[in-house]
Structure formats: C-alpha cells, structure tokens
Amino acid sequence: MKVSLKCFSTLVNPATCSFEKSTTYDLDEGQTLQDLVQRAGIDGEDVKIAFVNSRKVGLDTVLSDRDQIGLALAVGGM
Question: Is 77 strand, coil or helix?
Fold first, then answer.
C-alpha cells in the first residue's frame, strides 16, 4: 500500500519527509504510523502531533492505502 507523508518544523528532512510536497512510502498491510515514523528516520519521541487524513491520531494507528499523514512538534507558549 502507498501512503503520503508531510513533516513540519524540525522534523523536515528533504530526503525522507518534506513540508512542501508529500513523500510517498510503500508499506505492508497492517503497518502503523510508528512503523512509518521509524522508516522515515524520525525519532518517535519528537512527534507530538500526528494526523492521518486530517484526524489527530496516535503512533499506534494502523495505516491504510492512500492515507495522507502529517507530523509536527508541539508548538505554543508557556
């Protein structure tokens, strides 16, 4: 299955996860967002906000074909 990944802030790595254009990954059925994060070379501890198809989810979320994923750090004051 294919999924699309976008990263924001310091999670951006042009080779594995950009914010300008989605990076496509081929995954096996049943793989989770955590599997994708590891494959993209991102430390899961750095991911504070994750979206799959515009819904906030956890890293244990099982992904499906053509999912659109966004990853970001927590931001804000205080």
Answer: coil
